[in-house]
């Protein structure tokens, strides 16, 4: 496939791996965070870590949209379906995220009277809007999640719903912002000392998110925190090349925002999409993330002009935080402090078939990526 | 849900829509978020929407960089 296969060439990958090994200073350690779950997936699937020298370590970041969605937000959607008889439409990965009371959206679905309420998987926000148009007697709520990539499509359907005067459609908005999460990673987590902060030498910046927001929003990482960022495409060679570029920056004592994904990302990003998002959404004062806690100005809410299509306003919903399963380490993994294999439940009680935490649900989640691609072989065999 | 690959635009349809090819599979997507897409262009698609056009010249330049990284020993070390 054009623009895919060339970026997965094994021989070139070994060449870049050799260049990293040659240029990495054996006297020091390098720790880079790949922010985005898509990169976590690529790194695990293609065995990128096996091509890196031992002193270059990759740390998984919080850029997996399903992973950072806290239990309380899934509970909100489940309550809407069970108590208010609405039909929830959402992206497939959301359905299996564990919620309160041993439920998930998928398990809650079995309990619903399908004539009135339902829980459905959609491929795109437009599918949810189309369902509401097709079945006017059905109250449809699109559970919108994701970073800056899924936000413009949600903005489009909200604008269409308003233009159509569609009364049986609304959006439960959980769109979150990448720069805010990076800022949280660079600050010590709430309640922890400075020691708890992960030591990072730089970031592999997101691919798709950056096609929308451009490279400019990362400037603060270099300017205020003196860490390099290299925006990378999703293919394994993109990730390898960006690691090489990070190693070079560290060696030179530079902290710059560089772009490896020039074939799709510009400094300004997609201005049309940005304007649309701005028209429909505004910053939330505060939003709770799984793992990162409540962060100011880190998520979007629907503007008052669109309140009739805002499920939170329409149904008078309030958010109540709910703690994660007490043994689940998703929080520390999302902050880069622990690795999947550090969790007691990993690969035993928690597998992709029976996820206990959100990081085991989506293929972009750190735990699922490790589990699916055999990276769990490095766990010592524990006595049963 | 963030995983995606570049798709080639095969046909422009009404209402800002297009038919694209993804490794031999045809699919209908929305072009509402990008301007100036023509048949034969490659676009980065996410949840059914093209997010950006793929710059084919930049893609070639990046591939050239990969080859160079593997071949040329770093001069700083010399
Ligand atoms: S293995 Fe399961 S329970 Fe443990 S951190 Fe990962 S998702 Fe949570």
Summarize the helices and strands and which ones pair or pack.
The complex is a heterodimer of chains A (384) and B (78).
Chain A: H1 10-23, E1 30-36, H2 37-45, E2 56-63, H3 71-84, E3 87-91, H4 105-110, E4 118-122, H5 125-134, E5 140-146, H6 151-164, E6 169-175, H7 178-186, E7 202-205, H8 208-213, H9 219-223, E8 229-231, H10 236-252, E9 257-259, H11 271-280, E10 281-283, E11 286-289, E12 293-296, E13 300-302, H12 311-314, H13 330-334, H14 366-372
Parallel strand pairs in A: 1-2, 1-7, 3-4, 3-5, 5-6, 7-8, 8-9
Antiparallel strand pairs in A: 10-13, 11-12
Helix pairs in contact in A: 1-10, 2-14, 6-11
Chain B: E1 6-13, E2 17-22, E3 25-30, E4 42-46, E5 49-53, H1 56-71
Antiparallel strand pairs in B: 1-2, 1-4, 2-3, 4-5
List its salient traits.
heterodimer, A: 384 residues, alpha/beta, Rossmann fold, 3 domains, four-stranded parallel β-sheet, 14 helices, B: 78 residues, alpha+beta, SH3 type barrels, five-stranded antiparallel β-sheet, 1 helix, 5 strands, 21% helix, elongated, disordered C terminus, binds iron/sulfur cluster, HypD_1 (chain A)
Reported for the largest beta sheet of chain B, the result is: 5 strands, antiparallel
Uncertain residue segments of chain B: 74-78
The total count of strands of chain B amounts to 5
Name the structural class of chain A: alpha/beta
